[in-house]
């Protein structure tokens, strides 16, 4: 018989869960930060930051949200589950941004990355530059394809209901006026 009480067994199980949930968050956050910084470099916009980590749902603006960019943020007990985050991506020279939502799930020694309403792919852990480059090419192709497909649907008279997991940042011009 074990000297551990049922409570001790429960505590051990919860502590293991907690360690693994922290490990999961750290892995996903590392991947997300690599994707955010690297995708901006990949896009080649030399006019400043062109990709930010943003919340995967709700209001957002193109600014760094740090831990607030992740679906598990602010929930108290850190769940051991796939984690979503948003990529705010600059798409014009006039300040237009879109949010692309990605969900990451650790699968052994790989990280599965799913684009909301889009393709799923995976990269090895630890993250390597060659796989990130492939990921950036897929993200870029996904975004370009959406804009191209939407424009072609419009030109052919059928452009309702198109969505691939990102939304445009809607600005209120009155809010863009600085306070005195």
Features:
six-stranded antiparallel beta sheet, 180 residues, alpha+beta, single chain, 6 strands, 2 helices, elongated, disordered C terminus
Mind explaining what this structure looks like?
With 180 residues, the chain is an alpha+beta fold. Helix content is 36%, strand content 21%. The chain has 2 helices and 6 strands. Strands 1, 2, 3, 4, 5 and 6 form a 6-stranded antiparallel beta sheet that branches. Strand 4 and strand 5 (120-124) form a beta hairpin. Helix 1 (6-43) packs across helix 2 (129-155).
The level of helicity is: 25-40%
What structural category characterises the helix and strand content?
alpha+beta
The pLDDT mean sits at 88
Unreliable residue runs: 173-180
Regarding quaternary structure, what we see is: single chain
β content, as a range? 15-25%
From N to C, what is the helix and strand string? Answer: HEEEEEHE
Task: Please tally the β strands and state the result.
Answer: 6
Supply the number of structural domains.
1
Largest sheet: 6 strands, antiparallel
Shape field: elongated
Radius of gyration: 20 Å
What are the SSEs and their pairings?
Blueprint: H1 6-43, E1 51-54, E2 83-90, E3 97-107, E4 110-115, E5 120-124, H2 129-155, E6 166-168
Antiparallel strand pairs: 1-2, 2-3, 3-4, 3-6, 4-5
Helix pairs in contact: 1-2
Overview in brief:
With 180 residues, this protein is of the alpha+beta class. Helices cover 36% and strands 21% of the residues. The longest helix has 38 residues, at 6-43.
């Amino acid at each position: 018989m074990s000297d551990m009480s049922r409570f001790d067994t429960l505590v051990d199980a919860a502590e293991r869960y907690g360690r693994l949930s922290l490990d999961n968050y750290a892995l996903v956050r590392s991947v997300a930060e690599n994707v955010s910084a690297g995708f901006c470099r990949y896009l080649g916009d030399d006019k400043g930051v062109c990709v930010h980590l943003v919340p995967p749902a709700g209001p957002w603006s193109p600014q760094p949200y740090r831990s607030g960019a992740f679906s598990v943020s602010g929930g108290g007990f850190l769940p051991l589950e796939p984690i979503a985050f948003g990529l705010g991506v600059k798409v014009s020279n006039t300040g237009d941004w879109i949010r692309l939502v990605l969900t990451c799930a650790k699968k052994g020694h790989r990280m599965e990355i799913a684009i909301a309403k889009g393709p799923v792919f995976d990269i090895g852990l630890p993250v390597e530059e060659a796989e990130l480059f492939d990921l950036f090419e897929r993200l870029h192709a996904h975004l370009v394809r959406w804009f191209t497909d939407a424009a072609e649907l419009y030109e052919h008279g059928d452009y309702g209901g198109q969505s691939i997991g990102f939304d445009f940042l809607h600005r209120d011009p009155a809010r863009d006026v600085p306070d005195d």
